[in-house]
Design goal:
By secondary structure, this protein is mainly α. It has helices spanning about 1-60, 65-85, 90-115, 120-130, 130-145. Helix 2 runs antiparallel to helix 3.
């Protein structure tokens, strides 16, 4: 009888240990998914900015491909990031700030692209020189760093 009780106790400990390991594995996977989504979000923004800068320098519309991709895919990317952190209020607040800053960044990029397309190249370059886009990217890097 004592042997049966010992076996039941060992089985219980084993199940408990396996449950904790499964929970830890899920947490690691969730963390990796948040990291990837955050990196992908920042990458879309950096690529969009690179495309905008290439266009401003060359007036060649083909440079705008990564800009267009960023405008097209960023909303979906941010929605995925929000879904991943929905259960963590601190992270959700950070993602909200990332979303706000990303929207401002895309607006700044669109403003310069439109000015250049309208023949106001000097105005577009002045917007870049003013540094609002750079400050937004610094803030975005800071928020993504906090999230990670």
């Amino acid at each position: 009888m004592a042997t049966l009780a010992a076996l039941v106790g060992v089985a219980g400990l084993t199940i408990s240990r396996e449950r904790r390991a499964a929970i830890a594995d899920e947490a690691v996977i969730e963390s990796l998914n948040v990291r990837q989504a955050t990196t992908d979000t920042l990458s879309l923004l950096k690529d969009a900015e690179t495309g905008q800068r290439g266009f401003l320098l060359t007036k060649d519309e083909s440079f705008l491909a990564p800009y267009a991709k960023g405008r097209r895919e960023l909303r979906q990317q941010l929605e995925q990031l929000k879904r991943l952190v929905v259960s963590d209020t601190r992270q959700a607040r950070i993602v909200y700030e990332i979303e706000r800053l990303a929207g401002e960044k895309l607006d700044e990029l669109a403003e310069t692209v439109q000015a250049a397309r309208d023949g106001h190249q000097d105005q577009a370059v002045d917007i870049v020189r003013e540094g609002r886009g750079r400050r937004l990217m610094v803030a975005l890097r800071g928020e993504t760093g906090r999230l990670l």
